[in-house]
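Re: [ENG-882] Designed sequences occasionally contain unexpected residues at chain ends

Forwarding the minimal case from QA. Structure tokens:
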């Protein structure tokens, strides 16, 4: 899921999009890299990197870990990089693809009333909190509290509090948020997976231990970013975007 936020308890700044082949990671000091073996693969690997300034020297922090993406793989999303940057499918609502590109990470959500020692803005998932995935709604691709909305104009949404253990914790991915374009995909998150190899409907999912470790590290002052690409596109864009080196061999 990826979404703007319309909650009295939390609002996150938008990140300028459209960097394209320039430098979409400028200003970021925290980077989560997700790479899959191909556009169609629902499985991949994640690694976290840091740097102290805008130099191009990213330092890996921690081990690479397995994850899953949408059951149909990846498709170009809309984020800091702009939109589609070459061949490959394009992310659309309901296509079971996770977005490819560069995206800001704006908030953490969870079932707990308060986020334990998180630096990021925190969204407590009360029973009335929903993520709207109806392209016809003015709240499309937004996390809203139904109680705070003057008129409910959607017929489809994710009632996040009732999504089970997979939504116990999660991170909001800023896909298709500035502007929000109806039909280009909604409600994109990093969240707990249903188990090793269990693909999603469009989010990126990993083990609970791996996700909780990320939650404790993310810092809004470091402008955390997600780069999510199939390996072929990662290698093609690595020089232009000054991406870090990642593992090869048996991993994606």
């Amino acid at each position: 899921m990826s979404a703007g936020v319309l909650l009295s308890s939390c609002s996150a700044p938008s990140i300028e999009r459209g960097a394209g082949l320039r430098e979409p990671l400028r200003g970021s000091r925290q980077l989560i890299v997700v790479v899959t073996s191909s556009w169609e693969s629902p499985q991949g690997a994640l690694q976290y990197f840091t740097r102290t300034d805008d130099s191009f020297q990213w330092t890996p922090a921690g081990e690479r870990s397995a994850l899953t993406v949408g059951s149909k793989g990846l498709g170009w999303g809309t984020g800091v990089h702009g939109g589609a940057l070459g061949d490959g499918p394009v992310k659309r609502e309901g296509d079971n693809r996770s977005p490819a590109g560069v995206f800001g990470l704006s908030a953490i959500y969870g079932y707990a009333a308060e986020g334990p020692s998180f630096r990021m803005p925190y969204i407590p998932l009360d029973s009335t909190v929903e993520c709207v995935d109806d392209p016809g709604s003015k709240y499309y691709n937004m996390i809203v509290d139904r109680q705070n909305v003057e008129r409910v104009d959607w017929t489809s949404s994710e009632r996040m509090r009732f999504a089970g253990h997979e939504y116990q914790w999660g991170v909001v991915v800023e896909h298709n948020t500035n502007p929000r374009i109806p039909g280009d995909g909604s409600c994109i998150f990093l969240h707990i997976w249903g188990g090793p190899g269990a693909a999603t409907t469009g989010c990126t999912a990993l083990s609970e231990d791996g996700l909780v470790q990320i939650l404790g590290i993310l810092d809004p002052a470091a402008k955390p970013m997600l780069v999510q690409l199939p390996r072929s596109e990662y290698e093609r864009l690595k020089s232009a975007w000054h991406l870090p080196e990642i593992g090869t061999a048996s991993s994606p």
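QA comment: On inspection the terminal residues look reasonable. The chain has two helices and 14 strands. Proposing we downgrade this to a documentation issue.
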